[in-house]
Design goal:
Elements: H1 15-26, H2 29-41, H3 45-73, H4 77-88, H5 96-127, H6 136-147, H7 150-170, H8 174-200, H9 204-212, H10 221-234, H11 241-246, H12 255-283, H13 294-304, H14 309-343, H15 347-368, H16 383-410, H17 413-420, H18 425-458
Helix pairs in contact: 1-8, 1-12, 1-14, 2-10, 2-12, 3-4, 3-9, 3-10, 3-12, 3-16, 3-18, 4-5, 5-7, 5-14, 5-15, 5-16, 6-13, 7-14, 7-15, 8-12, 8-14, 9-12, 10-16, 10-18, 12-13, 13-14, 14-15, 15-16, 16-18
Bound molecules: 4-fluoro-L-phenylalanine.
């Protein structure tokens, strides 16, 4: 997966390659598709603020923990946790964190590939000029018609899965690295072009106000849970993806600084996507809380009214698809690296088997948008809602909390101090306070107030 070598496992060639790979994992559908629609459903400004707080005080410390654990153990997350538990002289049951990560990655990929398939279809639709000069109703109709067809969704879902598995199976070569080098900056440039468009749209002030005016009346315990889950999801935390990537990180690179750069890049893309989307929503009398379709209606609408919109729209959806692939790769990495290490199995074979199983599981999400749209499996949740809620809001935060507790309170702190280059007493206190207390306690408190009542309501 990475170049160079460290006992044959491979190693990122320098800090920037790691930043690109980790940012490739972090920046994906979570930023451009999910963040705006969740913010829309949760009232806007107050949610955005809470999300930023979660990224700052929970996300960044936990990413530092994950990357550090990976680099210390230099193996796949399940093996890493076993090795580190041995090193700390505690039970190997800590490997549970790795196992839960494998399951979470699998669940997330099952629906991630469905939505990324929509983006692939939108590459074609925009290239054909479907959205040129389209009305808001027309864009909504095109989206609804597409979702009503399980066959079409299955086809695009399959195509995305094949592309991902093909790349993963070959090993993530330098080709991907250099592609990321080009695509990520291009994605930033297109976002800036779209920012320019939304700046001139009639809904700009209203859109900004929606994103940044904090009306705390709308905030509940659930808002905190959703924001926390989104922070974990968008930074690819809590399931070992960053641990796996950290295991290829050379010794001499500062983890703290690198992680802050990754988090800032990721946050920029999410906030920019919101600032692009909401003015278009308001200028066209659309609904901010319309859910998963938000991006697939507003963005084609915007490009449909821009000069050379078909061309730029096509490029935009290509970039979104590419951002999704670089994230999907990291979703498979914990399971894949474990199976390859444990059974000495062929990477390609493991990748294909995982891909087929995940595609089948993804059918639950495909049908959630058409034939099973009222087939609720828990409360008012479709299969898609449930898989999404379970993985993002429960498994990732729980995994992240255990990772932080392990890194700060279980692992011998001399090893940690060396890894993170903590020399001063102040930094050491800060590390313990943020990683060992604030981050896990925040997760715990939010859990106690939101998830436990949910379970007792169901019982
Ligand atoms: N961070 C990705 C996104 O925002 O789209 C999704 C993701 C990738 C979540 C990898 C978790 C993960 F391990």
């Amino acid at each position: 997966m990475a170049s160079g070598s460290d006992s044959g496992r491979g190693m990122w060639s320098n800090r920037w390659v790691f930043v690109l790979a980790a940012a490739g994992s972090a920046v994906g559908l979570g930023n451009i598709w999910k963040f705006p629609y969740i913010a829309g459903e949760n009232g806007g400004g107050a949610f955005v603020l809470i999300y930023l707080v979660c990224v700052g005080i929970v996300g960044i410390p936990i990413m530092i923990c994950e990357v550090m654990l990976g680099r210390t153990a230099r193996s796949s997350p399940i093996h890493a946790m076993r090795k580190l538990a041995d090193k700390a002289g505690v039970s190997r049951h800590w490997a549970f964190i790795g196992w839960m990560g494998v399951v979470a990655g699998f669940l997330i990929l099952s629906y991630y590939a469905v939505i990324a398939g929509w983006a692939l279809n939108y590459v074609l639709l925009t290239a054909q000029g479907t959205f040129t000069a389209i009305s808001a109703e027309g864009a909504a109709l095109a989206y609804n018609d597409f979702l009503a067809s399980p066959i079409q969704l299955m086809f695009w879902h399959a195509l995305f899965m094949v592309l991902t598995i093909w790349i993963v199976g070959r090993g993530v070569s330098r080709g991907l690295e250099s592609a990321i080098r080009w695509f990520m900056p291009l994605l930033f440039v297109l976002l800036v072009v779209l920012l320019g468009y939304s700046f001139t749209s009639a809904g700009f002030e209203q859109g900004l106000a929606f994103m940044f005016d904090t009306r705390f009346e709308a905030v509940s315990g659930e808002t905190w849970l959703v924001a926390l889950g989104q922070a974990f999801f968008t930074l690819s935390l809590g399931m070992g993806a960053m641990m796996a990537y950290g295991s290829y990180l050379p010794e001499n690179i500062s983890i703290g600084k690198t992680v802050v750069i990754i988090a800032l890049l990721d946050t920029f893309v999410a906030v920019a996507a919101g600032v692009v989307i909401f003015p278009i929503v308001f200028a066209n009398g659309l609904e901010a809380g319309q859910g998963p379709g938000l991006m697939f209606i507003t963005i084609p609408l915007a490009f449909g009214h821009l000069p050379m919109g078909a061309l730029f729209g096509t490029i935009f959806f290509m970039l979104v698809s590419f951002a999704a692939i670089t994230s999907a790769i990291s979703l498979t990495e914990p399971a894949l690296s474990y199976l390859v290490e444990e059974y000495n199995a062929k990477r390609k074979r493991v990748a294909i088997s995982l891909g087929v199983m995940c595609w089948i599981l993804g059918l639950g999400t495909v049908f959630s948008f058409n034939i099973w749209s009222t087939g609720y499996i828990v409360g008012q949740m479709t299969v898609f809602d449930f898989v999404d809620y379970l993985s993002q809001n429960i498994m990732l935060p729980l995994g992240g909390m255990l990772i932080a507790v392990f890194a700060v309170w279980v692992l011998p702190q001399t090893a940690v101090g060396e890894q993170l280059g903590i020399k001063s007493g102040f930094l050491s206190v800060l590390w313990k306070l943020l990683g060992g207390v604030v981050a896990p306690v925040c997760v715990l408190v939010i859990f106690v107030y939101t998830v436990l009542p949910l379970f007792s309501n169901l019982a």
